Amino acid sequence: MLSVTFLGTSAARPTVERNVSAMALVREGETLLFECGEGTQRQMMRYGVSFALSEIFFTHFHADHFLGLIGLIRTLGLQTRTEPMVLYGPKGAKKLLGQAIQLGVERVPFEIEIRELKPGEVVQRDAYDIWIFGTEHGGGSVGYALREHERPGRFDPDKARAAGVPEGHLWGKLQRGETVELADGRKVSAEGIVGPKRPGRVIVFTGDTRPCAAVVDAAQGADLLIHEATFGEEEKERAKETGHSTAREAAQVALAAKARRLVLSHVSARYSISADELVKEARDVFKETVVAKDGMTIEVPFSD
Ligand SMILES: [Zn+2]
Ligand SMILES: [Zn+2]
């Protein structure tokens, strides 16, 4: 299971309908939080996102992306949490997040580590990696691409039987790509019995950015591209001036990256109630587009 739940989809300030930026990614029971705008903890409660998380990833330090950390840390402290937590962000994370977690007179009863990341770095995991790429929003902002490792190819039981491999532990070995030895001493390799390796899933989260080549590169073949779309076409000059993207620009990035699906988020307050205009402008360029809403969950299945 791999899904994302949008906790806040409004740019710069909250509205009645939308809170400021935050998104929970849930993979095989593990929850990762991306951004933590003001009020995120309450959104987590509303939309059933687990507080048992150990990592939060920040794209940059405009206040609408991280003020919620102050309160979330206090609540986790009240829950007598003891597990350590790691906060990731670009240059400046140590100073800004360091201040945020110290604000308030309560003592935080668990350890918090802050790691600064540079574009090109990779946070490695057993089953996936998180790639960090540079974005164009000023001040060394970054985006994140979660890339699952390749999966083993499909095992064909008929072919295994035909090759004389009896059902049992030898099948398991073949499935793992190993060569097995039969009772008569014959060796059978996995090739031909197990198909080619299959790709894992890819989710790309841009944070605030102008459309840029680094995002196109990072999002190559992505199953899901979550791109900011603060403005519509009529404000494209403003998007340029403020380091943001229009819905149409986000769609052009998705098209250039050959992504499967595009989700627009971080929309200006004027689209708070209806973002139909943004969706329409984006779909003219890239059909598989939706605009995020607070509380929306999107599942990401394997492509095969
Ligand atoms: Zn923002
Ligand atoms: Zn920003």
Quickly list its features.
single chain; 304 residues; alpha/beta; seven-stranded mixed beta sheet; 9 helices; 24% helix; 23% strand; binds zinc ion
Gist of the model:
The protein is of the alpha/beta class and about 300 residues long.
Quote the average pLDDT: 96
Order of helices and strands: EEEHEHEHEEEEHHEEEHEHHEHEE
- Based on secondary structure, the structural category is alpha/beta
**Which ligands are bound?**
zinc ion
Strand order of the largest sheet: 6-5-4-3-2-1-16
Number of strands: 16
Hey, roughly how much beta strand do the residues contain? 15-25%
Q: How large, in whole angstroms, is the Cα Rg?
A: 22 Å
Count of DSSP H/I helices = 9
Give helix % range: 10-25%
What is the first-to-last residue Cα distance?
14 Å
Strand count, sense and barrel status of the largest sheet are: 7 strands, mixed
* Shape label: globular
Assembly state of the chains shown: single chain
Low-confidence stretches: none
Give an account of the 3D structure:
The chain is built from nine helices and 16 strands. The protein has helices at 40-46, 68-78, 93-102, 157-162, 169-175, 213-218, 236-242, 247-256, 276-283; strands at 2-8, 22-27, 30-34, 55-57, 85-89, 112-116, 122-124, 128-134, 142-148, 180-181, 187-188, 202-205, 224-228, 262-265, 289-291, 297-299. Helix 8 (247-256) packs parallel to helix 9. It starts with a strand and ends in a 5-residue tail after the last strand. The mean pLDDT is 96. Residues 60, 62, 137, 208 line the site of one zinc ion.
